[in-house]
Amino acid sequence: MSYLLQVFPLTLLAGAVGLWIFRKRSTRFRISFLGLILALLTLICWPPVAWIGARSLEAPFLGTVEPREPAQAIVVLSGHVVGPSKLRPRAELGRDTYRRVRHASWLYLDWLAVPVVATGGSADQGRAIRAEVMRNRLIAEGVPAEQILVETRSSSTWENAVYTRELLQAEGIDRIALVTDAVHMRRAVGAFEKQGFEVVPAPCCFRGGQFPWIMDTAVPGYRALYTNELVFHEWLGLIWYKLRGRA
Length: 247
Known about the structure:
single chain, alpha/beta, Rossmann fold, 2 domains, five-stranded parallel β-sheet, two-stranded antiparallel sheet, 9 strands, 49% helix, elongated
């Protein structure tokens, strides 16, 4: 669910409405109000704020691109998947899911050849099953079809863990290398550990690594807004999972 992506236009609207409401107040007051609105918009779109936020979630996993310990299986969590349409003949992985699948494929081919589990249920109004689309991409990346298991019922991180536990329990597998975005890893690890898994983090898509000291980082932009959206979503999700005993 989007939070900050909605906050941006709503803040602009609130600023315009506020300036109209306060049109009879002093010029100094209206300038201060406008400055507050602009400061808020700048912060949620500013790369340094996005980097700090991502770092707050990713710090425990920096330097763990290759898992530090062996595992019995590689589990890759689904993200966005787009179903087929009149202009798209088949379902396609969203950028986040594609990068996770690429990382899981690399782990299988260059780290440890163990079963790979793709987990994720229906997407895009039921026109695609995330895990099935991921399976096709894993095969295209070189992972043998017979080494791929799919879990097709889940619609959340918690359900990823619950249904993957059911799938792997019959295989006697309880030690997994878990693949997902680094900002999502804390919540994902907590959910899978609650299901009795011993989790070896295998994060990808880091956003809070080494800070890029370039001119672009001083300019507010959509990428920073998107990262702040992910960070905000993950912190809310992590708190919610903690309150419900799911992480």
